[in-house]
Amino acid sequence: MLGVLRAQDAADLFHGRGAFAGYDGRALRCLLTVDAHVPATVESFPRHHARLVTALLVERARELRPRVPAPGDGPVPVHPGALAYARGEPLEAS
Length: 94
Prior knowledge:
By secondary structure, this protein is of the alpha+beta class. The chain has one domain (2-87). 32% of the residues lie in helices and 15% in strands. It has helices spanning 7-15, 47-59, 80-87, and strands at 2-6, 28-30, 37-42. The protein has a three-stranded antiparallel sheet, with helices on one face. A hairpin with a 6-residue loop joins β2 (28-30) and β3.
């Protein structure tokens, strides 16, 4: 399980405050920071997977040319949230 949160949301989730009051987010673990965002996972995410993801993002940051594929352009369907980003749709409040 991987996710990207705004830094403040990650802190609020970890501490169970604000919009995350009542949630136990103490298992949240940061992989790295990207500006005001935190790619994160949970404590139980395998160590070697976390290392591989972190290494890829840090070591290849300048070389990566990420893109959101068009629907049907690949072996796995594109997530609707990724398509929303590619289309420039605003982020919905959760």
